[in-house]
UniProtKB/TrEMBL annotation:
Keywords assigned by UniProt, alphabetized: Hydrolase, Lipid degradation, Lipid metabolism
Protein's organism: Aristolochia fimbriata
Domain of life assignment: Eukaryota
Keyword DNA-binding attached: no
Single GO MF annotation: hydrolase activity, acting on ester bonds
Protein name: GDSL esterase/lipase At1g74460
Length: 390
């Protein structure tokens, strides 16, 4: 009656990640013998939910999406320098934080080479340019994953992994993982602040932020229910100072009303994350933002090693700004490390580095342990390299 047990072993760069798939009788015997704690020990990986600030290639595989970073000069300072789906010249904030913690960089959910082993090794990134907390945000990009959709896709991933390694091992894997949720600016820039969207006339700013918070609360509780225990939510930067917002005024100043929305959003989400962390057992849900530092960088660029904080490095000529994105015919600035903004919306690699360091310093459990973090950022895995080359 005793059925055979088989061991499935995945080789990883860090060692072995092993799971036993076995008949119940054998499992119970092993438990009685004290092997229970050995079942399914795997790598700690990240699951990332977000918008264009964290997208690593999902929109590249959404053929009708108008939010794209698939043409030069996106990615010029990353890997082989070809566009890889990131909406910047180099690394995203989530890349940089993960690197500092010694965690692998998760591939895009829509990567055609994706399989269970790749997820067990690297985690997964569902972030999609144009996406928001609200389903209705960013409709004019036609195709994108909003946060609810991203969580739905994550549920699919969980089923896939459970089938592969068993429910118990999968539960452990998902409970030990790190979760990043980073959305909100599109809910303002590509929804509330646009008169064509119903939300802009339906809500006052306070009402709209309350609506965002109640939606986000439901989404974070859903992630908790699905097993997330360690989660960081990134707050917004001074989004009234992105080049796209500056061109709205003849003087080119930051839009202070827009910045005020970001400040209120950050306050409310800080409160939400703290309250969830207290009320949900075992949850460490943290809020981290870099608003003040980025504001200082924008007003005092020289102090932080920058030379320009109000126009994009990649730009299609002064007269026709804002060109929606940086395009192959665009002209690049001379020194990309001296520009705070890469395009009309998105910070440069160098600015992302400052943002990542600030978030790490604010979110205590992210602080890297000096003894087990490599000094240099790990190179992208071969699997990820392939994604980048496509
Ligand atoms: C949002 O979209 C998801 C599908 O991605 C759907 O299941 C959900 O019901 C929608 N929620 C609202 C409030 O429209
Ligand atoms: C909290 O953690 C303890 C110890 O690891 C565990 O026994 C318990 O089931 C956890 N509870 C929840 C709700 O995650
Ligand atoms: C800063 O930019 C100005 C033009 O905007 C240029 O003249 C100057 O040389 C730049 N300085 C550095 C250190 O790059
Ligand atoms: C780093 O981690 C090791 C073991 O995981 C621990 O012994 C050490 O105290 C930690 N160092 C710091 C600075 O937290």
């Amino acid at each position: 009656m005793i059925e055979s047990s088989s061991a499935v072993v995945y080789r990883t760069s860090m060692g072995l990640c092993s799971f036993r798939t076995m008949a119940t009788v054998t499992a119970i015997m092993l438990l009685l013998l004290g092997f229970g704690s050995e079942m399914g020990s795997c790598k700690v990986v990240q699951f990332i939910f977000g918008d264009s600030l964290s997208d690593v290639g999902n929109n590249k595989f959404l053929p009708r999406s108008l939010a794209q970073a698939s043409l030069p000069w996106y990615g010029i300072d990353f890997g082989d320098g070809l566009p890889n789906g990131r909406f910047t010249n180099g690394r995203t904030v989530a890349d940089l934080i993960g690197d500092k913690m010694g965690l692998p960089r998760p591939p895009a959910f829509l990567n055609p080479d994706l399989d269970e082993n790749m997820i067990l090794e690297n985690g997964l990134n569902y972030a999609s340019g144009g996406g928001g907390i609200l389903n209705e945000t960013g409709q004019w990009f036609i195709q994108k994953f909003s946060l609810y959709k991203q969580i739905e896709l994550f549920q699919g991933t969980q089923e896939m992994i459970s089938k592969k390694i068993g429910t118990e091992a999968a539960n452990k894997f998902f409970a030990e993982a790190h979760y990043v949720v980073a959305l909100g600016s599109n809910d303002f820039i590509n929804n509330y602040l646009q008169p064509v969207y119903a939300d802009s006339w339906k809500y006052t700013s306070t009402g709209f932020i309350n609506y965002l918070m109640s939606t986000l609360e439901g989404q974070l509780k859903l992630l908790y229910k699905l097993g997330a225990r360690r989660l960081v939510f990134f707050g917004l930067g001074p989004m009234g100072c992105i080049p796209l917002q500056r061109v709205l005024s003849s003087s080119g100043e930051c839009q202070e009303n827009t910045n005020q929305l970001a400040i209120s959003f950050n306050k409310a989400s800080d409160k939400l994350l703290n309250s969830l962390s207290k009320s949900l057992p075992n949850a460490s849900f943290r809020f981290g933002d870099a608003y003040d530092v980025v504001k200082d960088v924008i007003y005092n660029p020289q102090k932080h090693g920058f030379n320009n904080s109000d126009t994009p490095c990649c730009s299609f000529g002064e007269n026709i700004r804002p060109a929606l994105t940086c395009i192959p015919a665009s002209v690049l600035c001379q020194d990309r490390s001296k520009y705070v903004f890469w395009d009309e919306y998105h910070p440069s690699d160098k600015a992302n580095e400052i943002i990542a360091n600030e978030i790490i310093s604010k979110v205590s459990f992210l602080r890297p342990n000096a003894t087990d973090v490599p000094a240099e950022a790990p190179a992208p895995s071969p699997a990820l390299d392939q994604t980048i080359k496509q």
